[in-house]
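Reading a protein record of the kind used here takes only a little practice. These numbers are not coordinates but entries in a learned vocabulary of local backbone shapes. Here is one such record, which you should read through line by line.
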Amino acid sequence: MKKFGLAGQIFVALILGIVVGAAVYGNKTAIAFISPIGDIFIHLIKMIVMPIVIAALVVAVAGVGDIKKLGKLGGKTILYFEIITTIAIGIGLLAANVFHPGSGVDMSHLAKGDISAYEQTASATQNKGFADTIVHIVPKNVFESMAQGDLLPIIFFSVLFGLGVAAIGDKGKPVLHFFEGVLEAMFWVTNQVMKTAPFGVFALIAVTVAHFGVSTLLPLGKLVLAVYVTVIFFTIVILGLNAKMTGTNIFTLIKILKEELIISFTTASSEAVLPNIMKKMEQFGCPKAIVSFVIPTGYTFNLTGSAIYQALASLFVAQMYNVHMSLMQQITLLFVLMMTSKGMAGVPGASFVVVLATLGSMGLPLEGIALIAGIDRILDMIRSAVNVLGNSLAAISMAKWEGEFDKDKAQDYLDSVKETNVA
């Protein structure tokens, strides 16, 4: 008999959440009662992310100990991220021209969302130049960056600290053992938190459906369909080809990460599964040093699902207001998105802020994005899932590129996963 695992429990919770959400649609008392359950789950996830990222990076870098080797890995990783996200933006723009999701939308039937907080963030971040973005990478207070959940400065500090631990030799060994202990302890905590995932998923989905209902989707159904079809196409074709080049099958990777993909999809948060995908990619044959560097960095630089959404949403607004954008303007838009998506890294609601900043720089109406604020969570679900898959594949690609991928370990892990599924 097949075991009713976490993935099955989450799927049941998802269905129940939709049913309960539809039943209590518009009922503010019911929403207020269910909402804290989802909020607690998200808080639990955010609680474990920072300690794991710091401990994993310190252990990985101290293990490598060679600044030249680390610099080489860093350069290759950033190059890989830039290529793959640029392809994602290009596919998003192409899809917008094929689907025309903004054409013929009756704006009078759409409710406007409040985007004032996003507008302030977008203008504040947009005013920063490239030099300011580089300065931001270096934390002035590492605890402040931890409190804000800002990954880039944390990555910088952890890498530098890990190099320091390696440089002091035997004196650094107790520090290294401490962080190894922290990492193991946090993985245990993660396993306990994941047991509550079905409750969190149920609450988050129920609240989303209860808030917006099915009727909200209908006027913007074309945009939802365009985003989902494009992201699935990108996953199967682009990530599929990428996986094949590394000797992996994209569907095998999806099978390995099925629980993490369901959790990231239903919670609309890729952060929710960061510890799990790091652990699984290590079990799948990627060295700890590569996994611990590539995946946390990818959470800032390799958000392919978000890149597709940003491109589609930008052209959606232009089409909705009947603004024709020439080929040259769209090429300009691609370069603008390449810059703004990196500059907004670590900003809460980053995808939304990126679109706002892009619309402003291209002279498109900012009010347009307020009309899709209501369904942003539904779009966020699919882009979070593909962000998780893309970063897991990035770790495999880098391990292969460095010639450090362990094929035997990967096969042993696949065999153990098959046995678990059969049991």
Notes: The chain has a mean pLDDT of 82. The chain is about 75% helix and 0% strand. The domain at 6-422 is CATH 1.10.3860.10 (Proton glutamate symport protein). The radius of gyration is 21 Å.
